[in-house]
């Protein structure tokens, strides 16, 4: 990545997942990465020893040597971080935000003029480098920067460029999506266990079934509807199962789940007008 230096502001699980992906991909060297937090030296030492990267507290970080900052602290801490960044960085230093509910507009309005900001939203599967990550550009970045960030995020899975106004529906589909599948697997595991199968065996069978079905969607030309129709014989076992699923909510339950998660995401988002007073 052209020897760019990247600093993580925040040392939580998501920061670690991205650091691990960067290093395992071979696209970044350990010398290019520094991680920092406010004062948790024990956590910094843990990441330093595990990944052989530089780890310092915030007051030890030389902001002038960093090309890209990845904001990975808790979203509730954003206002204090904005105050610090406005005093220590320039507009041509790129900010990548992993903070849920914090819009690029919010950061642009409260940082330096023309501040370069890109928002990314990985999901929990980033922990195993299988994330579906949304990449949303701010106003003041060019396509080369967007493609650079997309390439970085592909170190933890797949990455997709989305407009900011699509981030809430992304949250409903991909951000909250893993929980829908886990919930499905809870029920699959329970019914299999009730029928006399070992729970771990049911879990493995169910997970392989989901994995195989997902892989077919990714690799075949047919749409999900066509794939479903291909394996649904009239009056067969699959038809019976789908009839029962639809009778008890089925597709409408999934639609409502996604809409509800997207609506909550929108309600929780920071609106830029709330903090404009910071610049006065």
From TrEMBL:
NCBIfam families: proC. GO terms for molecular function: pyrroline-5-carboxylate reductase activity. Pfam families: F420_oxidored (PF03807), P5CR_dimer (PF14748). This is Pyrroline-5-carboxylate reductase. It catalyses: L-proline + NADP(+) = (S)-1-pyrroline-5-carboxylate + NADPH + 2 H(+); L-proline + NAD(+) = (S)-1-pyrroline-5-carboxylate + NADH + 2 H(+). Keywords: Amino-acid biosynthesis, Cytoplasm, NADP, Oxidoreductase, Proline biosynthesis. Catalyzes the reduction of 1-pyrroline-5-carboxylate (PCA) to L-proline. Pathway: Amino-acid biosynthesis; L-proline biosynthesis; L-proline from L-glutamate 5-semialdehyde: step 1/1. Residues 164-268 form the Pyrroline-5-carboxylate reductase dimerisation domain. The gene is proC.
């Amino acid at each position: 990545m052209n020897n760019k230096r990247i600093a993580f502001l925040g040392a939580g699980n998501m920061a670690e997942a991205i650091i691990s992906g960067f290093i395992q991909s071979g696209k970044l060297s350990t010398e290019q990465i520094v991680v920092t937090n406010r004062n948790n030296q024990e956590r910094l030492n843990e990441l330093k020893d595990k990944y052989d990267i530089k780890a310092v507290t915030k007051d030890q970080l030389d902001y002038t040597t960093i090309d890209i900052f990845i904001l990975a602290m808790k979203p509730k801490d954003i206002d204090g971080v904005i105050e610090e960044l406005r005093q220590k960085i320039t507009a041509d230093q790129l900010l990548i935000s992993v903070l849920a509910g914090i819009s690029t507009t919010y950061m642009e309005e409260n940082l330096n003029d023309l501040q370069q900001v890109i928002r990314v939203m990985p999901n929990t599967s980033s922990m195993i480098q299988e994330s579906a990550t949304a990449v949303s550009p701010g106003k003041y970045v060019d396509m080369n920067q967007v493609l650079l960030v997309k390439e970085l995020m592909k170190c933890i899975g797949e990455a997709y460029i989305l407009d900011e106004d699509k981030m809430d529906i992304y949250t409903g589909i991909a951000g909250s999506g893993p929980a829908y599948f886990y919930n499905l697997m809870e029920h699959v595991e329970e019914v299999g266990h009730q029928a006399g199968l070992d729970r771990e065996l049911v879990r493995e069978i169910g997970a392989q079934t989901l994995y195989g079905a997902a892989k077919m969607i990714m690799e075949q030309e047919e749409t999900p509807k066509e794939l479903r129709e291909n394996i649904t014989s009239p009056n067969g076992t699959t038809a019976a199962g789908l009839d029962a699923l639809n009778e008890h909510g089925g597709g409408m339950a999934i639609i409502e789940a996604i809409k509800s998660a997207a609506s909550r995401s929108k309600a929780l988002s920071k609106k830029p007008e709330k903090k404009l007073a910071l610049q006065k």
